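Hi team,

Below is the intake form for Copper transport protein from Aspergillus rambellii. Please confirm the fields before the structure is written into the shared record.

FORM ID: S-0412
PROTEIN: Copper transport protein
ORGANISM: Aspergillus rambellii
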Amino acid sequence: MSNMTMTSTTSAASATSTSSSHDMSSMSMGGSSNSSSCSVDMLWNWNVIDTCFLSSSWHVTTQGMFAVSCIGAALLGVSLEFLRRVSKDYEESIIRQFQRYAAAQMDSEMTPFVCGAPPTYITYRASPLQQIIRAVLHLAQFAVAYITMLIAMYYNGYMIISIFLGAFLGKFLFDWGQYRIVLGQTPGPAGSNMVVEEEATKCCG
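The structure came back. Fields below:
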């Protein structure tokens, strides 16, 4: 009887020890998972490690990953200005194409010019393919601008500065200012003889 009592006591102590070690292991694992969770702040912050953007899969765990994220945010600003430039150039190419059509039509009709006659206008509509391309370019601009806005809403100072630098670099590279000055006219008020070919900066396309 004494041997049986000692054996059961030893077994119970062993089971209690195993259960305690299992609970401590579970607590340790749970603590480590919580320490690597995403840090999302809705106020201005300078967080680097354990920051997340847009989804939990974009989880920054090292400084190198954060540097790549900042470069990606800057490239969004650059790509937005690039898309605006492409869209502007495509619009100008459509206008030049219509101007060639109008010149050919005028040459074929040989309409005599009458001094003092009102100007004649010809209206062209974009073809379905041209309109699809215009819509795709607009969609791309809107998508890039919206994603950039969502990233900025995490209020991370490094990411916002990267977005600003990307916008600056994109404007510098892809939207170099060109100004057409009309000559041979009587000078009027300052800037009245200058045609500035610029576009206002828009947030979402």
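SUMMARY LINE: The first helix runs from residue 2 to 35.

Thanks, M.
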